[in-house]
Specification:
The chain is an alpha+beta fold and about 400 residues long. The chain folds into 3 domains: about 110 residues, PAS domain (Beta-Lactamase, 2-Layer Sandwich); about 80 residues; about 160 residues, Heat Shock Protein 90 (2-Layer Sandwich), CATH 3.30.565. It is built from 9 helices and 13 strands. A 5-stranded antiparallel β-sheet has the order 2-1-5-4-3. It has a 5-stranded mixed β-sheet with strand order 7-9-10-12-11. A hairpin with a 4-residue loop joins strand 1 and strand 2. The radius of gyration is 38 Å and the shape is elongated.
Length: about 400
């Protein structure tokens, strides 16, 4: 017979395993929940893999320091590497050039990316076999588990660029053909007018006894008018087609505006147009060729006045910006109807117009490192905005070839 205390030690209470079934159920529930989470994560990964496989762009993920940690199959194929071969490599090897040039390009891209959070541009990549190609890269810096990573989407655009070059070439050829037709039409019209006037003169001269001075004078006047138009047309063509040298110097734009507007006061008075000078007496100097800048303003003012044959208001204003000074020329004419490229050559809505004035104005604006744009509202008028760069502090001339 065992001692009483041993019997107590070996004795197991009847309810000792009473809580096992609930604990087992709880554990089983946790296992199932975790299994579902893993299954969902797996499905998410599979979905992402399928999405990556359908992208035309290659995907690459690198650490902040530039070590590659992930590449998609498209990316590997684009760079001519086997799956997983790029993992652990530095992104320097993706850029064309020697090691120093590769490191420089990589550092510049990563610096801009980490400063702005994203970078979008074109780079010259190099495949494993050494061949180069142009890719468009869209990169973004993102936080994953507390670490900064670089996520890059890249697409080989070499063929696309070549196709765009070929397309632009075809467009230029088409433009040349259209220009030739326009020139033939324009010059032909002028020559027809001159020919008609000459025939009238010939008939009058054959009949000297009954010479009609009025008819002869009218014919001579028509000849002078048509020949003047031809000279102006050819002058516009030379300006449009020929290369010339600009002398960019600091220009007092306020003084130039007042001078140019003064020359147009008689034309405005004749057409019943009021001039509003909405600009200060002095402003920041601009870097421009004074003669060519005056030519641009003349084209814009002439265009505005011709848009208001029955009178209106011509408003000239200016605005100083950080890098530019802008000039706005607003007319209260009928506006430009429909989507019209007014800067295209030979596009004109005016009777007898050659359609080169605004083309030349825009070309001269670009030649002076400026811009020329317009806004128009039907029945409310049109505003042309000329932007010219502010003069640098040195005030030195900067010749420029167009």
């Amino acid at each position: 017979m065992k001692p009483e205390h041993e019997e107590k030690e070996n004795c197991v209470p009847d309810n000792a395993f009473g809580d096992l079934p609930p604990a087992e159920n709880e554990l089983e529930g946790r296992v199932k929940e975790r299994t579902r989470e893993l299954q969902n994560a797996l499905e998410t990964l599979q979905l992402r893999a399928q999405v990556l496989a359908t992208l035309n762009e290659g995907v690459m993920v690198a650490t902040e320091s530039g070590q590659i940690v992930f590449t998609s199959e498209v990316f590997d194929t684009m760079l001519d590497y086997t799956r997983g071969e790029l993992i652990g490599c530095h992104i320097d090897i993706l850029f064309a050039g020697n090691r120093e040039e590769q490191a420089h390009t990589s550092a510049m891209v990563r610096k801009a990316l980490l400063a702005d959070g994203e970078w979008d541009g074109r780079v010259i990549n190099i495949r494993k076999d050494g061949t180069r190609f142009i890719s468009r890269a869209r990169m973004r810096a993102t936080q994953i588990a507390g670490q900064t990573y670089i996520v890059s989407l890249q697409e080989d655009v070499t063929e696309r660029d070549a196709l765009e070059v070929a397309t632009r070439k075809q467009e230029r050829l088409a433009t040349v053909g259209t220009t030739a037709m326009r020139l033939t039409h324009e010059i032909g019209n002028r020559l027809n007018g001159i020919s008609t006037s000459i025939q009238l003169l010939e008939r009058q001269l054959r009949r000297q006894q009954s010479l009609d001075i009025a008819t002869v004078s009218e014919a001579v006047s028509d000849l002078k008018k048509e020949s003047g138009r031809m000279r102006k047309f050819l002058q516009d063509l030379r300006t449009l087609a020929c290369a010339y040298r600009l002398d960019l110097r600091p220009v007092d734009l306020a003084a130039l505006l007042r001078e140019t507007l003064h020359a147009y006061e008689p034309a405005c008075l004749h057409s019943g147009i009021s001039i509003v000078e909405a600009f200060p007496s002095s402003m920041a100097l601009v870097s421009a060729d004074r003669e060519r800048c005056s030519e641009v303003l003349c084209h814009l003012l002439s265009n505005a006045i011709e848009a208001m044959p029955d009178g209106g208001t011509l408003t000239v204003g200016t605005r100083e910006e950080q890098e530019y000074v802008s000039v706005s020329i607003h007319d209260t004419g009928p506006g430009i109807q429909g989507p019209t490229d007014v800067f295209a050559p030979f596009i004109s809505t005016k009777p007898g117009g050659t359609g080169l004035g605004l083309t030349i104005a825009q070309q001269l604006a670009h030649a002076q490192q400026g811009t020329l744009e317009f806004t128009s509202v039907p029945n409310q008028g049109t505003t042309f905005i000329l932007r010219l760069p502010r003069a640098d502090v040195t005030g030195q001339s900067r010749p420029c070839n167009v």
